[in-house]
């Protein structure tokens, strides 16, 4: 005997679990149920799974029931359903802003390594270094001397990004000498960033990662208001002073005039570990500060990067650590990047299905 959809629906309704069922499939005697738990707590997930299994055991004992419980995207309810702000940039699917409240927490290093990890997963990636106070991407990608060429695209002159390790890169650092850039007034810096995005020949990109300056200033406001930023990632160290600023960063993205979803927090320098003794962890900036803040603010926690000497060295020699194979650092960045893509896929659930499919079916990506 096989079952009908209405048999299954009836049991779900009797259990009053309709709100938590995403979908189900029936294959002969096998019923596969996708449920969404309202809370991330293990015991709540287990409770929902047990309740469903027991109800089916009772009402349809001949069925084999398989329940998969995922956690309700914590931000989903609050995600904007409004269209993205700014004019869509032809060919660029997702623009991810990497921000930090406080300077020096490793935001640029994280941005560079996320770009590399996405590229390793098979995505087409661009990286825009919009950090006018300290553009570090040319150094991190070993292209300090590069000068972007001008190319003609459909009769218009555009900047051609510099390519390094398969990433298309543009940086304020390619154009302005550093002493000059830091004294740019807000409007001037915003205009430069606007040009780097709109007047460049980025081609087709799955992701454009934007490394923002630290803090919450004019540049952030103009960037997120003019450019269709898909989501933001906030990098912080676990120490109190950094967390307070990270909170402000979230506040900025949540402002009504900005309304950019925060895809998650990343804890950088989560603990120090000597590479030859990876089990020795020293929580020099405090333990789990960012993870706890993420939980409190109901924002996904994308993962942690330890403080290891090789990450700093890799950045300094122009070969981001994510390019290494199977090191503590590269594994951490891969994990974080996978979580970021998952968080983005959830965020895009509010967009038309084609948008979601585009993300969830990309090479090497978890759904
Ligand atoms: N996990 C890590 N382990 C070791 N060193 C790190 C780590 N993350 C970043 N660093 C180092 O810390 C320094 C600051 O990093 P980075 O320039 O990425 O910070 P930032 O937040 O972008 O700074 P800014 O204030 O300029 O925006 C760099 O020397 C970098 O190599």
UniProtKB/TrEMBL annotation:
PROSITE patterns: MRP. GO terms for biological process: iron-sulfur cluster assembly. The keyword Hydrolase applies. Pfam families: ParA. Keywords: ATP-binding, Hydrolase, Iron, Iron-sulfur, Metal-binding, Nucleotide-binding. InterPro entries: Mrp-like_CS (IPR000808), Mrp/NBP35_ATP-bd (IPR019591), NUBPL-like (IPR044304), P-loop_NTPase (IPR027417), YlxH/NBP35 (IPR033756). ATP binds at residues 101-108. GO terms for molecular function: 4 iron, 4 sulfur cluster binding; ATP binding; ATP hydrolysis activity; ATP-dependent FeS chaperone activity; metal ion binding. The keyword Signal does not apply. Belongs to the Mrp/NBP35 ATP-binding proteins family. Binds and transfers iron-sulfur (Fe-S) clusters to target apoproteins. Can hydrolyze ATP. PANTHER family: IRON-SULFUR PROTEIN NUBPL (PTHR42961:SF2). Homodimer. This is Iron-sulfur cluster carrier protein. It comes from Profundicola chukchiensis.
